[in-house]
């Protein structure tokens, strides 16, 4: 469990994961995740809650901003008051605070044994007293655009997004109700590898983006078959390298279906090589594909290693990736 907490902590905040103390001794996922979030959230809000502008739709007896004619006619045709208005509000009711509050409410429903963690979560509820409580679907937690103004919130908010995406459905039966926190290790491992490789390669999020935030890749010229590789390195609109991540053990030279998927990625990107990364398995192996004049590298990371040794493996992997990109040329123009 300490390894799982480390992967989650690093994936949500690569630069500052060393500040998260106590993870190496925690044997319970819920207790560790709750304590990690509470510490990060308090650190984020200690200097004061983040404020920002956002659009407010309201019904008032006086005009503020501009009149929302469509809303007025739809809800109260022929009635003068109240008036439907839309204006820009400046307060703490911004997405970053809403995500932290939603994660605090989620953890507050769970059976946390630590009295200190429960007190920390209760204090957070008081800090967000004027923030609207919103529910975010686990499969559609919104992203936050990071700037220098809200960067200090990032470790807490990214962890909150991960926790909200891990929320299991609330279970009800008879007179009782239960909730759970279930981390999708495929997503956690993928996020960790992407964040750690980005850091080791010295790249930005624009150069080494998450799936769905990169320039689209298409397998066909008609653009009917979109592809979203787990890992991709971009120079402007050109894809320089692609990789795929699998949270499973490979007992041989890589699963055929995984290799076919990676081959589709390098074909769409117009590259001569790609990388398949497993959470465990056999030593590194390179498959040469004479028909496609390409190669597929199968590599592994040992997630059972202590954090420093696992990050050393990531650094070695990054060095191999850099070497491969400097010695291989594009196969053909990518299908865009």
What is this entry, summarized?
With 336 residues, this protein is of the alpha+beta class. The chain is built from 9 helices and 12 strands. It folds into 3 domains: 2-49 and 94-183, no CATH class; 52-91, no CATH class; 186-327, Trna Endonuclease, Chain: A, domain 1.
What does this protein structure show overall?
Pfam families: McrBC. InterPro entries: McrC (IPR019292). This is 5-methylcytosine-specific restriction enzyme subunit McrC. By secondary structure, the protein is an alpha+beta fold. The chain folds into three domains: about 1-50 and about 95-185, no CATH class; about 50-90, no CATH class; about 185-325, Trna Endonuclease, Chain: A, domain 1 (3-Layer(aba) Sandwich), CATH 3.40.1350. Helices cover about 40% and strands about 20% of the residues. The protein has nine helices and twelve strands. It has helices at about 1-10, 30-45, 70-75, 95-110, 115-125, 155-165, 185-200, 255-270, 305-325; strands spanning about 50-60, 65, 85-90, 170-175, 175-180, 215-220, 225, 230-235, 240-250, 275-280, 285-290, 295-300. A five-stranded mixed β-sheet has the order 8-9-10-12-11, sandwiched between helices. The protein has a three-stranded antiparallel β-sheet with strand order 1-3-2. The protein has a two-stranded antiparallel ribbon with strand order 4-5. Helix 8 links the parallel strand 9 (about 240-250) and strand 10 (about 275-280). The longest helix is centred in the last third of the chain and has 21 residues, at about 305-325. The protein starts with a helix and ends in a 9-residue tail after the last helix.
């Amino acid at each position: 469990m300490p390894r799982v907490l480390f992967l989650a902590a690093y994936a949500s905040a690569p630069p500052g994961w060393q500040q998260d103390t106590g993870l190496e001794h925690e044997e319970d996922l819920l207790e560790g995740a709750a304590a990690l979030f509470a510490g990060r959230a308090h650190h984020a809000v200690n200097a004061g809650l983040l404020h920002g502008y956002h659009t407010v739709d309201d019904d008032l007896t006086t005009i503020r901003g501009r009149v929302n004619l469509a809303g007025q006619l739809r809800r109260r045709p022929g009635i003068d008051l109240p008036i439907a208005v839309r204006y820009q509000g400046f307060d703490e009711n911004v997405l970053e605070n809403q995500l932290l509050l939603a994660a605090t409410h989620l953890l507050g429903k769970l059976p946390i044994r630590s009295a200190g963690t429960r007190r920390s979560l209760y204090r957070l509820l008081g800090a967000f007293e004027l923030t609207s409580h919103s529910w975010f679907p686990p499969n559609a937690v919104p992203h936050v655009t990071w700037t220098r103004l809200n960067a200090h919130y990032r470790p807490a908010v990214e962890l909150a997004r991960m926790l909200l995406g891990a929320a299991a459905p609330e279970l009800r039966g008879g007179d009782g109700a239960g909730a759970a926190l279930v981390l999708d290790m495929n997503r956690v491992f993928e996020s960790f590898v992407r964040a750690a490789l980005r850091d080791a390669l010295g790249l930005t999020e624009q150069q080494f983006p998450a799936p769905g935030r990169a320039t689209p890749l298409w397998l066909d010229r008609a653009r009917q078959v979109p592809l979203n590789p787990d890992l991709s390195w971009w120079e402007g609109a050109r894809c320089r390298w692609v990789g795929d991540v699998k949270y499973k053990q490979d007992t041989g030279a890589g699963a055929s279906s995984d290799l076919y998927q990676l081959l589709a990625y390098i074909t769409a990107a117009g590259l001569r090589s790609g990388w398949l990364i497993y959470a465990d398995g056999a030593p590194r192996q390179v498959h040469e594909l004479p028909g496609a004049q390409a190669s597929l590298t199968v590599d592994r990371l040992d997630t059972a290693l202590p954090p420093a040794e696992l990050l050393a493996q990531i650094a070695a992997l990054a060095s191999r990736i850099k070497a491969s990109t400097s010695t291989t040329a594009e196969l053909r123009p990518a299908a865009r």
